[in-house]
Every structure is written in C-alpha cells, then in structure tokens.
Design brief:
Blueprint: H1 5-18, H2 23-37, H3 43-54, H4 60-103, H5 110-135, H6 139-153, H7 158-177, H8 212-225, H9 230-244, H10 250-262, H11 270-302, H12 306-311, H13 313-342, H14 348-365, H15 369-383
Helix pairs in contact: 1-4, 2-4, 2-5, 3-4, 3-13, 4-11, 5-13, 5-14, 5-15, 6-7, 6-13, 7-13, 8-11, 10-11
Amino acid sequence: MRSGLPSLAALFLRLGTTAFGGPAAHIAMMEDEVVRRRGWLTREEFLDLVGATHLIPGPNSTELAIHIGHRRAGWPGLLVAGLSFILPAMMIVWLVAWGYVRYGQLPAVGGVLAGVKPVVVAIIAHALWTLGRTALKSALTSAIGVAAFLAVLLGTHELVALALAGMIGALDVRLTAGGLPPLPVLVAAPLPQGDAVAGVGTAVGAALAATLPALFLVFLKAGSFLFGSGYVLVAFLHSDLVVRLGWLTEPQLLDAIAVGQFTPGPVFTTATFIGYLLAGHAGALWATLGIFLPAFVFVALSAPLLPRLRTSDILGGALDGVNVASLALMAAVCLPLASDAVGGTLGVLPAAALGIAALALLARWRVNAAWLILGGALVGWVAG
C-alpha cells in the first residue's frame, strides 16, 4: 500500500504546480490522470469520490485529492496527496504576496491567462463527456442532471441541488424495490432557492483583532462552513474581512481573489496571500493551515463510509443522484468560463480555435492536460 506514496506525491506535486482554472478544471485533470492514464480508479469509483466532496464543506478539488490519496495508500496517502497538491500552490501564492507587498502591484499575466482559459474549458468539457457516460445510467439520472444544471443557473444553492438530487435517486430506488413504477421523468423543474448555507457560522470570530490566533480562527471557519465554488469564498471573505472586521480594503480583497484565480492549484490559497498581507510569513502559514485543515478532517471522517454506501441500494441510488448533480455543477461553472475565455484579449476566433485544438488533442491523442495548459500559456504569452 505505502509503495504508492512516491507516485502519489509526484502526481499531486505536478498538479499543484500546473492545475489552473479552478475546481472543475482540477477535477477534470485528476480524472485524466487517475482514471484514464493510471487506472487507479474506475470511472464509477471516481464519480463516487467527486460526489462525496460536494457533500462536505471545503475546497472540492483539494478534498478529491485527499480522497484519492486515501483510496490509493490509506491514511499516509491521505496526507501525502493533500499536502502535495496544496504546497506548490501555497508557495507560488506566498511568493506573489511577497512581491505584492514589496512592489505594490500584481504581476502582468493577462496574456498568459488568455491562452490558458480556452484550454481549461476544453479539459472540463472532455471530462464531462467521459464521466457523463458513466453517471447517466437511466432516463431519471439524465433528468436529475438537467434539473440540477437548470437549478444552479437559476440561482439555487449548490448544496440544495445536491441534496434534492440525492433524495430523488434514493426515492426512486425505494419505490422500485417496493414494486411501484419508477419516478416519472418530470424532475427538471427549478429547485428551491437557498443561500443560507454560505452564511453559517458568521458569528464566529466577531470583534477579533488581526492576531495570529484570530487569523487562524477566521480561516478555520471558512474551511469548516463553506460549500460551493470559489465565488462563495469571495462573498464570505468580503463579509468577514472587509465589512465586519475591517482587516482588508476592497481593492486588497480583489487583488487577493485575482491571485487565487491566476495561480495554479487550489483557489483557497487566497488565504495564503491574505495571511501574508495581514501578518507576514507567520500569517501566511496560519491562514493556510486554518482554511485547509478541515478538509483533511472531513475526508478522514467520511472516506471509510463511502464503500458502505454502495452496499445499500437506497444509499447507492442517492449517491448516483449526487454524482450526476455534481457533473451538472461542473457544467454550470463551465459556461461563464467559456464566455470569459472567448471574450478575452486573445479574440473570439483564436480562443475558440485554441479550445477546439486542445479538445481534439485530449480526445484523439490523449495528450496530458498539463502540457496542453503550458502550450496555451505559451500561445497567450506570444499573442500578448
């Protein structure tokens, strides 16, 4: 078991250095590496892990890396995979934060990002295609996927969409087992709205000064209660750090979010940047520890339960519903990313051509996604 630790470390160190584009892109790159290339997991096993990460708070792609490490090499693998994915991104953001404090501005990376974005969209689209063929097992799971996709586009909170998808999947199994016909395929109506989850626990850390323990507690709360994408993190940080505590100005927060977006690895390394701004090197370390520590705890608690879910027909049906809804969330994230990619400085036609070329290289020749991202960055740099 532990013989897999070096290969785990090598893979996730590379992903932590080259995985641009946010959680959806990271998940797509992990699928390419651990399912298609290495065969460490089947597509169904990978989907189960993706679904599990959406049911617990914290950064989805980091938790997926931790789950893969646990599945591959037990408890040591859990730590090695998670730390290997986080550390390169943290060090890059730390260096950017040092330069920002020293020189007062962020590096000019617009041209590079313009080339990377179309490639990231292609990577996500390819992963959706390959994983969708496994997740869409029936007319009902297809309808659940469509419903979740439309619901998120209409503003439904991600956790509400996932919960209802799981309930519908479990209920269908229960009714079928009881001799009743399956649920009719009429579940594509918009799901209820709900934004309360992102605000859970906002009373924690009130009226704290920007000391190291206070900084740790603020980001520990973020890692413990935040569901959803990096955009939820933006709202949380604005409420806590700008409005309530007054630790950051609006421009500083925008710069911190930009750093999390244009650097590789987990978007939550925004915490490293903010920690450095507020309390130097010690602040960067404690803020990063605070926001990522809950991910390791939640995965350690939930990972042993996943195999048991598949032994129960009802819970397995619920997991099938959550899995297809998770892909719907990825698809919903892909739309604004695609719009942003073709609307950038590269131009509509060059960006579209770059994305189509990357998709063809992935589908036909299985070119490694890291090389595609580096190629896109080079094209964007030359064009810029």
